[in-house]
Amino acid sequence: MVLLAVDFENLHQILRNLYTDMMPLCSNMSGVAKGLAGLGALFYIANKVWQSLSRAEPIDVYPLLRPFVIGLCIMFFPTFVLGTINSVMSPVVKGCNRMLETQTFDMNHYRQQKDKLEYEAMMKSPETAYLVSNEEFDRQLDELGWSPADLITMSGMYVERGMYSLKKSIRDWFRELLEIIFASASLVIDTVRTFFLIVLAILGPIAFAISVYDGFQSTLTAWISKYISVYLWLPVSDLFSSVLARLQVLMLQNDISELQNNPNFSIDASNTVYIIFMIIGIVGYFTIPTVAGWIIQAGGMSGYSRNLMLMVNKTGAVSGGAAGAVTGNIAGRLINGNGGGGGSSYGSHPSYGDSNPKGRNYAYASASGSSRGASSGYSPNSPPYH
């Protein structure tokens, strides 16, 4: 079952191409920036020279070189400024992305192994084999006759198989919904990051030109710190995804060990933990700008961080409420099934080895069989790097 056929990797690739295509626009702003920087250099040099002459002091030439260096940066901004910063930061991005790819590969391997063990565990017991295998279901139906007791047993098997399929479909639907929200959170971070980088890159020459004027020298360092901080959103996002992937690997290893050694292991508990960590991952993605700000200080983004945290709170509330509703519904069915297991029965079936003509209790079979539903992991989408 696929909720929405979206190739998030392709969307991240589009954002990377967008950043590359927008870089030539920096040259369009260089003309305006050179005019501003030239006027600022004239005022700056005149002010410094006039101060030295008025005080009868020798003129210090070294500070007067600053406007000329900034002018050279403006003239070759895409290559000299953006190219240098991107080249220095690119190894960091590639290293974090390789870590994510390694963890994702391990997670996919363990997930396939766990799915196989779950299917084998369900097939070992005749009470649950017919729930996951069409051949076993048909075989058990063929062994039944047409007596009233057998017809009741047959009806019970159809009901229990339908309930198991419905429960599994609801669980898979909710898991895929959380995975789409998780991937969308990654896409939101990458989209906002690309937008910020494009704006900073296009208007960077203007920021450099303004920094020539007295009183605005901090504009240069502020621009550099903000650009690097936003650029680090991608490696921080990859690190966060690597942590989540490693956590999933550890969970899958524990589930595989339990499936191999513990015949009473409940897969429903593992599914609940998986849902909880998906919600944590969704909320955690929106803390990436804050973590990137710890690496290099960049002010001026408090309003965005505040709006982002409001979005986090709303997303967490909606996801948590939905998770509670689904978990409570499944738990209620299990409790009701166990509580009413002694009062009704559907007839006998030779596969269960029951000689009682009243047969076995299929309500109890639903509770014990459905608690071994299948589960699968997820693959966090990593945005590609520039």
Automatic annotation (TrEMBL):
Q: Which InterPro entries match?
A: Conjugative_transposon_TraJ, Conjugative_transposon_TraJ_C
> Pfam families of this UniProt entry?
CtnDOT_TraJ
* Positions with biased composition (Low complexity): 346-355, 362-379
Q: Per the record, which residues fall in region Disordered?
A: 345-386
Task: List UniProt keywords, sorted A-Z.
Answer: Membrane, Transmembrane, Transmembrane helix
> Is Membrane one of the keywords UniProt gives this record?
yes
Q: Which residues cross the membrane?
A: 25-45, 65-89, 195-216, 272-296
Domain Conjugative transposon TraJ C-terminal: from-to ranges: 7-348
Please identify the protein, giving its name as recorded: Conjugative transposon TraJ C-terminal domain-containing protein
